[in-house]
Every structure is written in structure tokens, then in C-alpha cells.
Design goal:
The protein is an alpha/beta fold. The chain has two domains: 2-93 and 144-215, Rossmann fold (3-Layer(aba) Sandwich), CATH 3.40.50.10490; 95-141. The protein contains seven helices and seven strands. InterPro entries: Ribosomal_uS2, Ribosomal_uS2_bac/mit/plastid, Ribosomal_uS2_flav_dom_sf. GO terms for molecular function: structural constituent of ribosome. Keywords: Mitochondrion, Ribonucleoprotein, Ribosomal protein.
């Protein structure tokens, strides 16, 4: 609990969503404060779920639009060998999976054939750069994910709707003003705290590192 409190996770925003009344203690200097025990229990519930996903060699898709968290998400996703999206959401990426899979296969084929040559000769083509920006984090996504992790629900509503439409379990970081009812695994806490995000994403990584691919299944 001390580690969680040290990340400034409890300090929320100036508003509280009615559905979060059970998760806050009150206000401090005009800011609502999350209950540390609610934060802890929401995180533990999510970690148990992710551990199950990792144990059966499942896939989680990290979805982030906040530039502040891009390096952290890229590092953690790479450690876990999981895909990530950190650009504007492409409509139909999940709901039109057959088309997405064809595009990913095309990108992989092009990269395998020409990627090294382009890098060695410092060549850049606008179409290739657009494909690289859009698909590079998705190379390990070979089927619909077993869960989607949203670092900010407010910035990723289109992706969230697609995940819900397909009944893909959702994990979402929630500040005090956000509605938790549609999120399968809400994690309460300050969404603008880099310390808190670092703490949680490291915990996510440990779930997958605990089960090397040879021990999954």
C-alpha cells in the first residue's frame, strides 16, 4: 500500500462520477481523493486476470494516445511481447479483423523484403513510413486480442466501442470523473501520474515474464 500511495495515485480530479462514490474518500484542496484500498483491490483483480491470460499464452493490446507514456508503453509491450497502438485509432482495426490481418500480412511481407535495404540506404518513402507508424507496434498481433488495455478511455472511445462490440475484455485506468461501469477491469487512480502508470505497467509486465512461452499453454 505504501508503494501505491507514494505514486500519487489517490489524488484525483475536481469532479467525481456518481458511479465512483464508493471509491473515493472525499476532497482535499478541491481535488477528489481515491480510497487507497479501492485502488489496491482494483489493481489486484486486474493482475489476477492478466496472469490467467499470460498463463494460457494469450494476447493483450496496449492502447495509448498520451505522448508522455509512449516510451513506457513501447518498453513494457516489448518486454511482454505484446502489441500496442499509440497513434490515432484506425476505424475497424478490431471490428473488421479480416481486413486488418491482410494489411498486417502485407506490411510484414514488405518489411521482410525491403526493410533492411531501406534502413541501410537511409531511404524513406511516405507510404512506407505511414505503414510503419501504423503497424509496427502490431506485428505480434496475429488474432483478435484476449484483452485491451486503455491508458486513457477518454482519448480512445472508438477503440473502446469496438472492443465492447466484440466482447473483448477491457482494462481501463480511471480518474475520479470517469464512469467505471462499462469497463470490465477498472483500475482506479490518477491517470496523469507517470509514477503510477510506471508502477502499474511494470506489474503488468511481471504477469507475463512470470510465464515464459515454454511454460504457457
Amino acid at each position: 500500500m505504501e508503494e501505491i500511495l507514494g505514486t500519487q495515485a489517490p489524488l484525483g480530479g475536481q469532479r467525481v462520477h456518481p458511479k465512483q462514490a464508493h471509491a473515493v474518500l472525499g476532497q482535499r484542496h478541491s481535488l477528489w481523493v481515491h480510497d487507497g484500498e479501492q485502488i489496491r483491490s482494483s489493481l489486484l483483480r486486474t493482475l489476477f486476470f492478466l496472469q490467467e491470460v499470460a498463463q494460457r499464452d494469450g494476447t493483450v493490446l496496449f492502447i495509448n494516445r498520451n505522448p508522455l507514456y509512449e516510451p513506457l508503453v513501447r518498453e513494457v509491450a516489448s518486454m511482454c511481447r505484446q502489441p500496442h497502438v499509440q497513434t490515432k485509432w484506425t476505424a475497424g482495426l478490431l471490428s473488421n479483423w479480416d481486413q486488418t490481418q491482410r494489411q498486417l500480412d502485407h506490411y510484414a511481407s514488405f518489411t521482410n523484403r525491403y526493410g533492411d535495404w531501406l534502413d541501410q540506404n537511409d531511404k524513406s518513402f511516405p507510404m512506407y513510413l505511414r505503414m510503419q507508424k501504423r503497424f509496427d507496434g502490431l506485428k505480434s498481433l496475429r488474432s483478435l486480442p484476449d484483452a485491451c488495455i486503455f491508458l486513457s478511455l477518454a482519448d480512445n472511445q472508438a477503440a473502446f466501442r469496438e472492443a465492447c462490440q466484440l466482447n473483448i475484455p477491457t482494462i481501463g485506468f480511471l480518474n475520479t470523473d470517469m464512469n467505471p461501469t462499462k469497463v470490465d477491469y477498472p483500475i482506479y487512480g490518477q491517470t496523469q501520474s507517470l509514477q503510477w502508470m510506471h508502477y502499474v505497467l511494470e506489474s503488468f509486465a511481471l504477469c507475463f515474464l512470470k510465464y515464459p512461452p515454454s511454460e504457457r499453454g
